[in-house]
Amino acid sequence: MVMWPAVTLIGFLVLTALVVFMGMQSTARYERERAEGTSGARHASPETVGAARAA
């Protein structure tokens, strides 16, 4: 009788920890990319992607 509430609670805590861990990784990656972007050289003009060049 007590087993299912305990399993549910443990599962909830494990899933919550997983979501927190994934969020921390994503935030760290975002901060790292943002720091690299501000310190690196920037292009004077944006590159066109997928645009056909007329010869």
Automatic annotation (TrEMBL):
Record field: transmembrane: 6-24
UniProt region (Disordered), positions on chain:
33-55
Q: Which UniProt keywords apply?
A: Membrane, Transmembrane, Transmembrane helix
The question of whether Transmembrane helix is a record keyword is answered with yes
This protein is called what?
Uncharacterized protein
